[in-house]
Amino acid sequence: MSDKKYVNVLIVDDHLIVRDGIKALLIKAEGIKVIGLASNGMEAYELLKSIHQSVDVVLMDISMPEMDGITATHKIKKDFSDVNVLALSMHDDQSYIIDVLQEGALGYILKSTGKKELIHAIFRIAEGQSYFGKEASDKLLNFLSSKEEKKEVKSNDLLTEREYEVLALIADEYTNLQISEKLFLSPRTVDTHRRNIMQKLNAKNTAGLVKYAIAHNIN
Amino acid sequence: MSDKKYVNVLIVDDHLIVRDGIKALLIKAEGIKVIGLASNGMEAYELLKSIHQSVDVVLMDISMPEMDGITATHKIKKDFSDVNVLALSMHDDQSYIIDVLQEGALGYILKSTGKKELIHAIFRIAEGQSYFGKEASDKLLNFLSSKEEKKEVKSNDLLTEREYEVLALIADEYTNLQISEKLFLSPRTVDTHRRNIMQKLNAKNTAGLVKYAIAHNIN
DNA sequence: TTTCAACTAAGGGTAAATACCTAGTACTTA
DNA sequence: TAAGTACTAGGTATTTACCCTTAGTTGAAA
After folding, report:
1. Which of B9, B14, B15, B17 best tests the A interface by mutation, with the highest count of A CBs <10 A?
2. What pLDDT score was predicted for residue A101?
3. Which nucleotide is nearest to B165 (CA to C1')?
4. How far apart are CA A190 and CA A181, in angstroms?
5. CA geometry: angle at A18 spanning A15 and A24, to 5°?
6. Residues with Cβ < 8 Å from A101, sequence gap 6 or more?
């Protein structure tokens, strides 16, 4: 992108107002051009199929319906490795940061970041360099200094259809028994699903499950 | 505001990018002027102390640190009753909608709403009329047709300091026993707090508590 | 065609949460 | 000074969640 005139940006966020807002923000920034908008990971991926040659930076929200930002980043880097991803999230949870960076995002900043820092980050990412907001840096250092690395790294499989279904009902305050009735399953099966989900997500209990469900828009 | 030239808007949201984004959005809208920004309810309230005469509409996010949008709306309508509030949220949970409307907000729209609808809503609210996005309308009808009205209405007390503290730890995946150790309490006391919180929030179990905690930025 | 993942289900536990109840102390407010 | 609220904590019980393990079926992929 060294000799291009603009950094071409694709904004991915499920909230229209946020999307339009960031677009309006970036329009006034010199050297940046918003060339696309998508409301979820799937849409972004489909859009990139036709315009990936002209996209320099994807501004990627993490929590979205249809396809979340982490999955989308994975698919994008797999198929369009020349497109750089900057994760933009409200969450400063260590696991999201780690996850999306493992999928190939070059940077991570919070939505509570200022306009200046956003623009700076976009230019950095466009050059193929990394950029982390303060919170992301802290969490990263925290992660690197802990010994849990391997454990966490290998636990990034997505949930299965059935597991998503069960998780959604858990987050909706259903008990295992109620879930089993709703899904025509044995309570023991629901119990098994529940514990499998907990293991996959490194959740200690229901609280952890619900936090994941909300962050990933599962419902 | 009938003979003013502009609808003066105050934007309240905890995410700087969202705040700046909406501002950039509205700047291009004819007849609307963004005259203030605040990053939480407390800041908005303090700001209104000096400029409430010139504010027509407060665009109020629901989930914020320091002081959430529901509490802020309450304080604003109490002290500056001529200022109209339009709630702007990512959540379409019935309880938030009901809560903020009970505190005096005139409208409720989601962040997934489009720019056009946002601007339309702002003009409606500025005129003292109500405006609800589709999702809010649906939930409202749902609420009105249910018989739980009184039960829900009377259960809007805020939690106490201690209860917030306990709730935060619950959402952080601590068990009652761990919480009791952290706060130097008897496990029975934590249990009592937990059940009191559940009653106040109409939560059925831990899942309900965590959902509330996240939506209200308790941590 | 066998290997694997997803889905199903159960035995046999322990730990934790949920429910209903009472009750003391400390502090504030009417 | 009486009433109320927050905070504390216990008794007693049931229900639900959580843990470890095994295992059958199905369908898809290697």
Report:
1. B17
2. 78
3. D7
4. 10
5. 140
6. A87, A108, A140
